[in-house]
Amino acid sequence: MSYTLSTSAAILYKSGKDNPMLGNSDSAAIIAKFSDEAEGVVCAMTHTDWVANYSSVGANFKPMLDEAVSCYAGLLIVNYDPTSYPLRSSADGIKNVLNNNFERAIRTLLESNNRKAMGLNT
Fold it and tell me: How many C-beta neighbours within 10 Å does residue 30 have?
């Protein structure tokens, strides 16, 4: 399931340049785990198995799935070790932006008009 809806690069980019995965020898496994978790959360919250149906999603909608997954996984990375950021407020600011973007993406994926345009029946 890892990296169907997003990429490790997108996840790391979203978590900021001071993220705790830099220099962490276990970072590849941790990021893959967070990606899997984020994909599961997005599928559960939207009641759609996007991973299984990814090939049927139009190219114009795939970035919205990437946004949702990379933001959620980015949140998990920031929460993994918020002390790696120079200031606690830096970590909190990143988390606020990621949370807002994640919530917007989920709302967009739940809207019936968007779901129809994506080829879903509901």
Answer: 16
Q: Kindly give, in sequence order, each residue whose CB lies less than 8 Å from that of residue 82, ignoring residues fewer than 6 positions away.
A: 88, 91, 92
Q: Which amino acid is at 85?
A: Y
The predicted structure's pLDDT at residue 119 = 73
**Amino acid letter, 119:** G
Return the residue matching tokens 């997108």.
10
**Whole-number Cα distances in Å, 79 to 3, 51, 56, 99:** 20, 25, 33, 12
Residue 122 pLDDT more than 90?
A: no
Model pLDDT for residues 5-19, shown as the tens digit of each residue = 999 999 999 999 999
How far is the C-alpha of 23 from the C-alpha of 106, rounded, in Å?
Answer: 32
